[in-house]
Amino acid sequence: MPQRSNSILWRRLRDKIMLDLGCGEGITDLGFLEYQLKQIYGLDITSWDLDHLNRVIKKIKDHGFKLSNVNRFKFIHYDGKHFPIPDASIDIIFSQGVFENVQNIPLVLREMHRVLRSDGFCYVYVFPWFKSRYGSHLTDYINDPYYHLQNSPEEVEAKLKEYDEDPQFMDYLFN
Asked: What does pTM read for this prediction?
């Protein structure tokens, strides 16, 4: 057992079921396994397969990190709206740098509430906006930080296509 067995974080996470909303490749989740979570579900709109997970695990191990209990981590693909998870089945929801990319924040918050146990807790961290074509990072493209929340995905894409045709703007982004 790691030396952290008496830490507050260790006691708070041990034997819990955690959901990582917007897990990306799952690297953070693999690190959380050290804390002896019962299960970690990595929820993302990107559909990862077992081969991908094995490549990530190999990459981490190749860099000298030890991993244990990797069988306790599972990717779950979702549509960006409805979590394919039963009601009140999650102890901890972790989300880092995701909400600035969410189109329907109230819906996602309702889903979080639905799957979280009554004695569960959430950790949500929202990153500042960066240059990106997704979510509220659109402010470099569209002069309205909430455009993606007020318009349909088709309208957002149409607005972004205007910039695809502007060589000056593309030079600004990539230089």
From this structure: 0.71
